[in-house]
């Protein structure tokens, strides 16, 4: 069920720059896949910790408080991810965390065999797998995704899984098609034939659109870019299983061999993770009576998914007597109109209209979207469709049906 007229304004009030850009003025923000809006609490927390000169590991009250904040954030992240074991690690970005995990897996797994991924994947995981497969002397096999549905399934993976599959990568949600993937089903299918395979998941696009349940996936690594999940730029987060963490990896000689973080971490980054978890806990309490924190976070995830489905359905099928994208001439939606795998994103193009011009027209009407091109970021999806570009309209749970209606009004004037 979508958020009601009382709750949605409360949700929107917790985010910065919901309705206005500090540089361009009033605008509707449908570019959430490029980076979600930031919680106001994250902005405040960042400023607070940026001013503290002390480092961790010292014998003074400030240092001890920094360590407490980091420990609390790691505990919060475990609740968020439902990850009772393994490590929570921060790094430079989600992409960097994927590269580190894939590098460690490729260089530490048993010799020979193959690295398995899919053509749906973002270059963050696909490039890392290709690079380190070659340097570790392994074949890199790509499972073709379904161009019609814009996703990939366990059945698609199955014919390509062999007993010597040493490392596998899975994209949880595509930032181009917007379609989600059943990670648990794919991981289970991999383990049927290759039980010791190290499985690493790119959760960067998925994280803002529904709950994460590491304990149910049966994987070894999961990466997130927190700026796409209501936090801020400047760091990435990964969950790393105990067996992946135990493989040889870069660390300081003479230091703890289990350590993955290099150098002093930004306490403020950790603290903003706690802000995100606190927000989802609050939201879960608004939509459920769950007494347990994890249950409230699951309730928030379900409510987010339901609200975003309402928004994308309105965009596709119409609202307020406005035609939806499905009824607009010359308009094509990637992944099809009726697709249950969709997570808060619609990618489309209009025949005879360059996508760059469409992005500009929407911008001039106060609606921010983004172009995707047949390049190293999105060519894996667009090239098989014979398409040079598209626009990506990416929503989040703080967006409203009224904003969708304004978008459809402009699109109707463009498509005729």
Automatic annotation (TrEMBL):
Keywords attached to this entry: Lyase, Pyridoxal phosphate
InterPro entries, per database record: Aminotrans_V_dom, PyrdxlP-dep_Trfase, PyrdxlP-dep_Trfase_major, PyrdxlP-dep_Trfase_small
Any one GO MF annotation of this record: lyase activity
Residue span(s) of domain Aminotransferase class V: 28-255, 303-407
Pfam families reported for this sequence: Aminotran_5
Protein name, entry field: Selenocysteine lyase/Cysteine desulfurase
